[in-house]
Amino acid sequence: MYTKILLSLILGLFLLTPFSSYALGKLGHQLVCQLSYDLLDDAKQHRLDNLLLNLTPATTKLINAYNYQKENSPINFAKACTWADAIKRDKTFDSYKPWHYVNVERNQDSVEPNDCKKDCLTSAIIYHSELLSVSKKEQDKVQALMFLGHWLGDIHQPLHVSFASDLGGNKVDVIPRHGQCKNLHWYWDQCLLYVEELPKNTTPFQLLYSQLTTQMDKVNTPLWQEMQVYNWANESIKLVRSEGFGYCKNNKETCLPLRGGKIEVTSAYHQKYHKILQERIVLAAHRLTSILIQVL
């Protein structure tokens, strides 16, 4: 009971934060981890909360700085899941940069275990799930927890499973429907979560959190097994190879780069894939919870 009351207070403060104070990329990861946290029972929530108490002052300060909040603000799971992006400018963690994605060849329509055995997104999920389960050091466990929460968001953003030649859509220029996102990857990371009609006195987080909460009971999640990672990756690669996605053009078995300048993100595209991204966030939350139930 105490844990749920504390969560409500922290979440209330989070919802009051002006939306302009954090990027939509952060919002996506925060939604995944908050929804996942909500699915845990009291005992697992308490275990997770206790792990986060092991964060060093330096890490707490870094996470809060990245989220534009006071340096000593409490760190809940939603905010902790942005840590893997917050450390990108810290050379100490340079080796983790490739862990945010997995690349395949342009003639591949699936991701297999042999495609990447280390230092990529699929292997990262397996590695940090195991580390969270078996490590005896609380510092290692809390770091694994933060990485794991972030990786589940990344693998469900389709362009984190794509092709190296255009940096996963970072070289696919777009004319954005909303915001300042100038390439397709950026648009999916951030601007696609913009809502076109926002009720008065409601933040995008409040609206999206409310909408996604109503969708949570529509998903059945099997018990966590490592091979499921490749199924999740294959869902993403299927999306990015689809014609309507605007990423590549299929020529027989090869997904060729699009030509012809910038792609305009239409209202129809935004509405269609905004809904799909919401579905991906819900799936990510359920699947993260399935892992946490077994390893916490």
TrEMBL record:
Extent of the signal sequence: none
Residues that span the membrane, as ranges: none
Keywords attached to this entry: Disulfide bond, Endonuclease, Glycoprotein, Hydrolase, Metal-binding, Nuclease
CDD domains reported for this sequence: S1-P1_nuclease
Keyword Zinc-finger annotated: no
Domain of life: Bacteria
Tagged with keyword Aminoacyl-tRNA synthetase: no
Protein name (Swiss-Prot/TrEMBL): Endonuclease
Provenance organism: Thalassotalea profundi
